[in-house]
Write a structure and sequence with these properties.
The protein is mainly alpha-helical. 72% of the residues lie in helices and 0% in strands. α1 runs antiparallel to α2 and α2 packs across α3. The radius of gyration is 23 Å and the shape is elongated.
Length: 172
């Protein structure tokens, strides 16, 4: 089998330890990138949110939330592209579109299995899935924090409305 290798396949490790090492480098890079990205998004959200109070218009609050969600989504798209580019460039999955589809399938743990890595690289699929699990979990925790802030704001608005209603009620 090893005698009939194409040029790209000659550089492919046959050692599973090497395959895992390559995947681990990618996994660590994605986690570090995600940490930097999450921190950036969190700082932007906090900078905008510090000026929000019970009188802030709903459209502005929605814009802040939508911006945070869009930034978090873009972070995931960048991370998946960073997995797809080397797979495509190395010829493992030659077409970038197919490579990106494969990575999205694994990263989201969708599991359609429409595309498969060559046997020599098949351990990368589960490692890509691990990176998605880590990063989506981390993103989920940030969204819980953001929604907690929104809940506190909603309670403040409700108190303000309740106080205003109490002031308008006729006194006995």
């Amino acid at each position: 089998m090893d005698q009939i290798l194409s040029g790209a396949e000659r550089h492919i490790p046959t050692d599973p330890v090497m395959e895992i090492a390559v995947g681990l480098v990618g996994l660590i890079a994605i986690i570090i990138l995600h940490g930097i990205g999450i921190r950036f998004v969190n700082r932007l959200f906090s900078a905008a949110w510090v000026r929000v109070d019970a009188r802030t218009p709903i459209w502005r609050i929605n814009l802040i939330l939508a911006t945070a969600l869009a930034a978090l989504s873009m972070l995931h798209f960048v991370e998946t592209m960073l997995w797809a580019l080397p797979l495509s460039h190395a010829g493992i999955i030659p077409k970038l579109r197919d490579s990106y589809y494969f990575v999205l399938d694994r990263y989201t743990t969708l599991g359609e299995d429409a595309l498969q890595l060559p046997n020599r690289w098949r351990l990368l699929g589960p490692i890509i899935a691990m990176s998605g699990l880590f990063t989506f979990g981390w993103t989920g925790s940030v969204l819980v924090s953001i929604m907690g802030e929104l809940g506190r704001l909603d309670r403040a608005r409700a108190r303000r409305q309740d106080d205003a209603s109490a002031d308008e009620r006729p006194k006995p």
